[in-house]
Amino acid sequence: MRVHVVSDVHGNAEDLAKAGEGADALICLGDLVLFLDYHDHSRGIFPDLFGVRNADRLVELRTARRFDEARELGRRLWAQLDVDRESAIEAAVRRQYAALFAAFPVPTYATYGNVDMPALWPEYARPGTTVLDGQRVELGGRVFGFVGGGLRTPMRTPYEISDEEYAAKVEALGDVDVLCSHIPPEVPELTYDTVARRFERGSQALLAAIRRTRPRYALFGHVHQPLVQRMRVGPTECVNVGHFASTGRPWALEW
Fold first, then answer.
1. Is 195 exposed, middle or buried (0-12, 13-18, 19+ CB in 10 A)?
2. pTM of the prediction?
């Protein structure tokens, strides 16, 4: 059995269409939407609406963790645009989802990232794409558990939930062979982004489940340039499967 795993697709539909080649199944750990590319500020929903100069400024403020100023910039730009914010964002996300879900191979097993909009997924998930969140599936005799979304941060991305809600989804999985999530367990080496120069939020509930149930693998994404991509927590191999938007390459698991 061979499974390919991707995370942080961020609009890369072209490579996503090839990500399942040579595999029995594709697993996607979320963040399909591209709001703003931090490497190329001309790409994404934000620069499409407000231009590259404003995208440059937003990245500068967020990188400096000046989140109040970043939100004030956003409020001012939306007021100048004089359109309904929610409608404009949803329309842009829908255009991206139409291309991205069409690119998924069959079968695909997917969960949400913190920048995704779960309410829209049922409209775009085709037969052969299974969406899982706080749920399990058996592939080739191994049990895979999926936990989607992220935890609350000053960034206020679309699918952030409370620690309690997230922990309940982790608990609902029980014992699994492979624990799949968008965010990493709360381990400093796995949560630190070396380019953004900050710790992203990881999950204490994931870490506790890894120590308690000892899955073979814990797979995740979210941290685009991690200090450590792969390490063990007890017998569990914890793997950041990579920033797919940048690399265009899936991570492979074989057994």
1. exposed
2. 0.93
